[in-house]
Amino acid sequence: MKVTYYGHSCFSVYANGKHILFDPFITPNELAKNINVDEIKADYIFISHAHYDHILDVERIAKNTGAKVLGNFEIYNWLLKNGIENSHPINPGGKFSFDFGTVKCVIAQHPSSFMDGSYGGIACGFVLTTSDGNFYYSGDTALTLDMKLIPEFTKIDFAVLPIGDGLTMGIEEAIKASKLVEADKILGVHYDTFGFITMDHQKALDEFEKAGLHLSLPKIGDTIEL
């Protein structure tokens, strides 16, 4: 599958002829200053939780593209209040089918609140099954044994995991998570955007390689095959 990285935790997967975007946070990210947010294609947008660094560009992209936006029930209500009527609720444990395939919502261990401090519902991850392949996006999360359940339901081709430490998993925990979900190809996200999550890229690549795993750290704007 073709995966495009837009910085922080924002990435897009092209699967079964659809552009599936996750956690759009681009315009405030200095590292993504060369990305034109109005040129981003999206048929679906998934929101893992309500923190500003995962939702700030969702209104703009959704209104530009007409994409269907999915998030937990609190995010769903927030979307409706902000004029995004093409939205759909999904909570952990839930599964829905769309024209790209299926999505199952799973637990993430992380807080969630909107920019005004109001409750943002439970943080989530997503497991997508498509005719082009399957993948797991953990969202912002700590390492959790719940990840062992992922391969019991779906054999995944790659996983997207936060590796910047501090606010989410770091390198060591992400390696353990990769083994729990039985993925040997990993896209690393949620690093370098802020001073407290800067990361030694070469160390991350070396540690994953030592563990027999392939870590991808594409440049912002690059498209890779996973």
UniProtKB/TrEMBL annotation:
Alphabetical UniProt keywords: Hydrolase
State the Gene3D superfamilies in the record. Ribonuclease Z/Hydroxyacylglutathione hydrolase-like (3.60.15.10)
Claim: Hydrolase is one of the keywords in the record: yes
GO MF, one example? hydrolase activity
Q: Which residues form the Metallo-beta-lactamase domain?
A: 7-190
InterPro entries membership: Metallo-B-lactamas, RibonucZ/Hydroxyglut_hydro, UPF0173_UPF0282_UlaG_hydrolase
Q: Which residues cross the membrane?
A: none
Stored PANTHER family: UPF0173 METAL-DEPENDENT HYDROLASE MJ1163, UPF0173 METAL-DEPENDENT HYDROLASE MJ1163-RELATED
Q: What is this protein called?
A: Metal-dependent hydrolase
